[in-house]
Each structure stands twice: as structure tokens, then as C-alpha cells.
Amino acid sequence: MNLDIYKNLHRANRELINLNPIQRGGILPTEAKKAIYEFWDGYSVCDFCSGKLDEIQNPPICKFKEDLAEFINMDFVRFTHGAREGKFIVMHSICEENDYIVLDKNAHYTSYVAAERAKLNVVEVGYEEEYPTYKINLEGYKEVLDNLEDENKNVGLVLLTHVDGNFGNLNDAKKVGKIAKKKGVPFLLNCAYTVGRMPVDGKEVKADFIVASGHKSMAASGPIGILGFSEEFEDKIAKRSEKFPIKEIEFLGCTSRGLPLITLMASFPYVVERVKRWDEELKKTRYLVEELEKLGFKQLGIKPKEHDLVKFETPILDEISKKDKRKGYFFYEELKKRGIVGIKPGVTKEVKMSVYGLEWEQVKYVVESIKEIILQSHHTL
Amino acid sequence: MNLDIYKNLHRANRELINLNPIQRGGILPTEAKKAIYEFWDGYSVCDFCSGKLDEIQNPPICKFKEDLAEFINMDFVRFTHGAREGKFIVMHSICEENDYIVLDKNAHYTSYVAAERAKLNVVEVGYEEEYPTYKINLEGYKEVLDNLEDENKNVGLVLLTHVDGNFGNLNDAKKVGKIAKKKGVPFLLNCAYTVGRMPVDGKEVKADFIVASGHKSMAASGPIGILGFSEEFEDKIAKRSEKFPIKEIEFLGCTSRGLPLITLMASFPYVVERVKRWDEELKKTRYLVEELEKLGFKQLGIKPKEHDLVKFETPILDEISKKDKRKGYFFYEELKKRGIVGIKPGVTKEVKMSVYGLEWEQVKYVVESIKEIILQSHHTL
Ligand SMILES: Cc1ncc(COP(=O)(O)O)c(C=O)c1O
Ligand SMILES: Cc1ncc(COP(=O)(O)O)c(C=O)c1O
């Protein structure tokens, strides 16, 4: 066993501009880094525990749970290890084996895998339009639910991805919330890409459950998430153990016993503020789209952008790659030279990126860098 | 919403000697702290992911998985969020609803709650002797299994707590492993308190599954654990998603996507070394017991100690508390004055403690401090 490989673990990309959409919302503010020094040891959040992690007063985890519920406007909140674990908890506690769940065709893979783990059947709601917007046909939820009803299938849950991880399309959650309500089916909104970036109001959209991701969109270290739920489902979600009545079954007593929770908490004031500046983030995103489309990129997904995750079709990169001796890797390598990472190496037909949270000057630097790479390549070839 | 309470989060006990057994094995070495600086942002471990977290090569997570398997001598290892999540994964993937599991009466509450979540029935194996050793009757597993067989019950799993969290009793796992093997029932050994502190050899004790806890006993930030399993159960534990064949269902694709895993990895060389010095740790523990028994404490659990967690009956503290105006809190407060924490405030009949990982001088300081508190109190009263 060569133990030297575990010494001096280093993140090569740490100081660079990272355009990977999954990385942009999880960058820690200084406050959270300071808190890490305090709580990095094992079970250190448990110093003053009297039996249930989320009722600890010092650090103020108990109050935090309430403030988070207010932040997303849901009755209750619990901590989870991430959005996916929250989805599984909902499915496992409110559905019966072999129930059906209805979800959008842009749903994240973890929604499918959580359903598989909970032994549920999945039915998809498709697109209103495929290429180029891949817009989900939200009214389609009604039809799918009607059909399942006609077939006497038991539908346990309606799930909508608030913003998906492929096209960054924002869905009008209230539409689906209303349909679900009318049908009497519980409604889960997956806010992994929204809570912590943009304002989300659970009651307004008629969500029974909201899952969010700390490491993805709430400036926290991974893995941490939150699950918001309405009072109606408290007895199922927060069901207590018979033998250990203080412990909630679905959370195995206590979920996030450690550091990620501390960072989520320390970052919270920063997150509350940044959500208010969402409009400014959209301006950056739209500027990026406008400038890159001038270079021959084509934005996929709904226009204009209502989220920072952008997927582009990039025939121009594909064309260059055919003539560059580095093949598809030229784009990655040229960006890297300029201190920019987070674009998949070797991929040239489509690229995903986000400039969320970058300073305007950095956004402009990104645009100028891409412009330079493309013009230079055209010139050289 | 008063956001000021989340500013400058501080751990009051950070610099003090902490005798709480759940805290002693999770203290980070410097190497792990350095790694935290590198990887504190969100999904930062995922920079070079090609679809499955535990196959990432940079940082060397994939190799780490193999080295951990070698370390505990099991065929395979996966990362979990902790010991309890590992237990749930085993129960959920290999048992059928309403199956029976057999476990020891000293089992951790999370073993019961995991079984409840997996909708299983629990049958306990009792004590060979109650007070004062609370030694589990390991041969009793045979009888319990025979009885369940006679009643035509389906037994899905045998679980043994390697060292329990109440008395710190070490169980001879091989005995139970052999009984389980003979009966053809899979055997899970809960090593939350052993792997990372003392040598554990999964095959030697005939374990099909081993769960361990990073934040508890492997010098890692919480929450992180490992699940070791034998090849025989690979198809069930590591079952892949139908729609997303790279993703393992029970792990929801990827489990520990973040910082705790990094600390587990960075601490690994240190943990491998410290396990070799387990004998020295036992000497410290036995010295503690010897000295405190001179003061009127009485060690509960099996003698001599084979683990650092010690539970004492403390009639002497109870006696003092009746005359001290601070009541039961005098012990906590006097220790605190001396820079020692981790004893439950107000409790005087029984106390739990561990000096695991302290320097000999610190161990002696702890003993001298307790001696001083008791003699002084006796004198004053
Ligand atoms: C839409 C969506 N949902 C869920 C997830 C998973 O989040 P978590 O890691 O918190 O489970 C992601 C992550 O990429 C996502 O994009
Ligand atoms: C014997 C035992 N098992 C399991 C656990 C739970 O460990 P984890 O937090 O990793 O789930 C503990 C924690 O106190 C324990 O003492």
C-alpha cells in the first residue's frame, strides 16, 4: 500500500475561474471558511447535543432550521446529505412500493435513481418542444395523471425539476403545483439549482416538499441538503422511532452530523443577500449568451435565459477541432492557459457553462478569452 | 430573521481536552486540515469526475477505495455518510420487508432505527451477565437463530456491535461470524468504534459486511463512513440503475460528494499508523481505570478494558453533589476550570470517558485533576 499518494492532496483548479455550472453555487464565502476551523473535528457539532442534532442550540442549528423554513416558505425543514437524499426520504416515507411517480423528462438522474431505490415506477412528462428549447410541457402533467387514473394506477408523487441541470430551463412550478393539488397528489419540487441562487417560495407554488442542495447552490461544502415540507406530511416525514422516540426514522436519528452543516449555516447570511441580487446574475448570463452567439455559439434551452446554467451548441468549436492537432482538446487547453477551467475536455459539439457569482470583470474576461481563442484559431488555420 | 447569530460561529470547547468518547477518534491531524483548504468548495472533489465519484483518480478516491478494502480485509468498500447509513444500505438491499434481524442487546440506537426504516423486525441477543459487565452472550446468537427457524421466520441478517457505545465492551466477532455462517445468514459487524482505532480483519471474523465511521474513529470530519462487503453480496449492494448503468442504486449514484471524504483520505496514512499503536492506547485506558478506581470510581463493562471507552459508576461524585451548592454540576464545572470537557453536565451516578489519543502527560493531568477535584470537595464539605 503506497500511502504517499494521500499526502498533500491538492486541488489543481482551486485558484482558477471555474465555468462548470455545478461548481459555481458552492463556492464558500470567508465566513464559512472561518467556521470550518472551529468545527473540523469529527462530531464537533455534537458538543452540546441533548439527543437530536437539529435541536442543538449551540451552534444555533435549531434556530437555523426555522430560519431556513422561512427562507423557502415551508412549514418545516430538515437537514439531509443532499437533494437526492431528500428525494429518497420523501419517496420512501410517503409512497408505497410499486406506486407511480410522475416527473419531467429533464429530471436529474438522481430523481430516477431515488425512485428505483424506493421501488417506484416512473412516468415522464415530455416536451412541448424538443430542439432547441427542450421546454417541458407542463400542462402534460394533467394528461399523464389522467391516464394513470384511468389505468387505476396509484400515483404517489408528482415531481418537477425547478431548473434542470442540462439546459438550465426554469419551469413555472405553480402550474404543476395546481395540477397536483387538483388531483390530490403530493408535489415535490427539486430546487437543487434554485434555492440559494434565486428566490423560491414553496407555498406560493403549492409545493408539499422542496429539496435543495447546499454544496450545489447554497455556498456550502459537500455533502449537505435541506428538505422542506408542509405540516400535512409531518407525521410521515418526521415519524419517530418506537424504541427511541426522540429519533426520526427517515433521518436515522441525525443526518448531517458535521462540517457541511456548519458551512451551510455560516454561509446563510451571505446566501440570503445574494439571492436578492439574482437579477444582476441574470444580466451576466444574458450578456454571456449575447456575446457568444455573435461568435457562432447557439444557446439551447428557453430564451431569454432565466437561470445561469447555459448550454450552447458550438459548431464553430467542432469545426476548429477538426483542423487543430490537439483535436477537441484545443478549447480546454486554450482556456486553461488563460486560467479558465470547468469545460469538459475534448467536447466540442455542445458545451455547458455558468458565470454565476463572477465579477463583471471576470465575465468579460471569460467572453474576451473565448473570443480570442476562436479568432486566433480561425486565423492560424 | 436575525442573521447575526450565524456570524462568527465558534466552538467553545475547541482547545480543551475533551473526554467524550465520541469526540476522541475524530480529531483531525494536520494533514487533513491542510487538505480542507484545498477542497472546501461545494462539489470540488468532482473536478475530474467521469461519472462515478468513487472512481475519480484525482484526488485518488478510486485507489483509496481499494486501500481501505485491504485495510479492513474485505473484498470491496464503498463510501457512506456514516455507520448508520451503511447499516441501512445493507438491510435495505439484502433483506425483504418484515424479515427478522438478530442483534446484540448493546447495539447502538442507529441499528434499531435503520432496521425500523427498512421495515424489519428486531430480535435481541441478551447478556451473559448484566451488572456489572453487561457482557453479551455470544453463544446466544445460536439459540435465537434456532428459535426463529423453528417459528419459520425469515432471518435476513445477523448484526453484532464490535465495540458498543455504552460500556465499550469488545466482542469476539469470530464466534458470531461462525454461528451466522453455519446458519447461512449474512453477518454485519458494526465497527463504528473499532475500525480506525484498532486492527480489524473482516475475513478473519467471517464478516460479510463491515460498517465504520470516519468522524467517530477515523480522524475525519463528519459525516463520512465506509461499508466493506464480500464479493458474494456485490450484486445486491452495488446494484446498478437500469436507466443510468454507471450509477449504483443504494448509493444514489454518488454518496459522499465532498469534504468529509477528503479528510478521511488525507488522514488515512495517520490512521494506518495509529492503529499499530493500539496497545499503547489500551495501557492509557487501563492506567485511567486503575487510578480512578482508587478514588472510588467503579469500572462497568468487561475487565480488563479492551477498548478506550470507559463507563464508571461514581458513587463518590453522587455523594459530593448532594452537599455541593452546584449540585451535580460541580464535577463538570471543576473539570472545565481545568480545561477538561466532555463529561455530561449534571450527571453524577455514572460517567463515560475516553483518553484515546491523548499524550501520556495529558492522561496523567486528567487523572490528577479528577483526584484533586474529589479530594478538595471532600475536604471543603
Ligand atoms: C437538478 C438537480 N437535482 C439534483 C442534483 C443532485 O444534487 P445533490 O448532490 O445535492 O444530491 C443535481 C446535481 O447536479 C441537479 O442538477
Ligand atoms: C456503536 C456505534 N455504532 C454506530 C454509531 C453511529 O455512527 P455514525 O455517526 O457514523 O452513523 C455510533 C455512534 O455513536 C456507535 O457508537
From TrEMBL, chains A, B:
Reactions it catalyzes: O-phospho-L-seryl-tRNA(Cys) + hydrogen sulfide + H(+) = L-cysteinyl-tRNA(Cys) + phosphate
N6-(pyridoxal phosphate)lysine PTM sites in chain numbering: 216
Known cofactor(s): pyridoxal 5'-phosphate
Any coiled-coil regions, as ranges: 131-158
EC code: 2.5.1.73
Name used for this protein in its record: O-phospho-L-seryl-tRNA:Cys-tRNA synthase
Top-level taxon in the UniProt lineage: Archaea
Keyword match Coiled coil: yes
InterPro entries with a match to the protein in the record: PyrdxlP-dep_Trfase, PyrdxlP-dep_Trfase_major, PyrdxlP-dep_Trfase_small, Sep_Cys-tRNA_synth_arc, SepSecS/SepCysS
Alphabetical GO biological process terms: translation
Pfam families: SepSecS
Keywords: Coiled coil, Protein biosynthesis, Pyridoxal phosphate, Transferase
GO molecular function: Sep-tRNA:Cys-tRNA synthase activity
Binding site residues for pyridoxal 5'-phosphate: 83-84, 190, 213-215
Assigned protein family: Belongs to the SepCysS family.
